[in-house]
Structures are given as structure tokens and as C-alpha cells.
Amino acid sequence: MRKFAIFAGLGGSFGGASFHGVYEYNDEADAERDAYMKAEEEYQSYEGCHGIMSWDECYEDAKEAGWFDESSTQNEIEDCVDTHYLEQIENWAEYYVREVRPETPDCVSEGEVEDWVLV
Description:
3-stranded antiparallel β-sheet; single chain
């Protein structure tokens, strides 16, 4: 297991990625997936306000744009809206990880984390 500092948040006026903590993962890819999930959770916490679109708003947006019509199957519609919704998340999400030394305490603060980062 390796330790990584996780940074995640939303871009724009939301301020970007912020420090979430130090956690152990099998590899960097696992750490990045967790960081993305934290950014996605933050996105979902703002859905419907400040320009953050919910799945239902993505549905209405896609419908108005003509991306599907009455001949579209339910699966086609859901796939279209899911794609639009994920694009919205990816447009707002900011996240990254930094590997830290194995002896880094789990309770390290944001101000201290750079002292533990591996170069």
C-alpha cells in the first residue's frame, strides 16, 4: 500500500481542488479514482444551483437541444443524458493526488502536506 494526499473540488468560482486528507491505496490509479469520486460528490452537493446542472436539468437541456426525440428508446435517452451529465461533472471537477512518504501521519493538515510529498 502507498499513501497519497487527495485534492478534490470544483473549478471556477468554487475555488478548485482542496485537500481532503491522506489515505492508503494500492496504486496511484486507485487514489485518482477516489479523488474523482470526491469531486463528483462535491458536484452533486451543488446540483441545481450556481450553474451546476442536475441529471434532470441535463435531460431538459438535451431534449431542448434535440439530442433525442420521440423515436428514441428509453435506453438511448438515458445514455444521451448520462453522457451530458458526466460531461458537466468533468467540466467542473478538479482533482489530483500527490504521493507522500509512507510514514506520513493520516492526520496531517493541508499546510503540512507539502512537507511529506515525495519528489
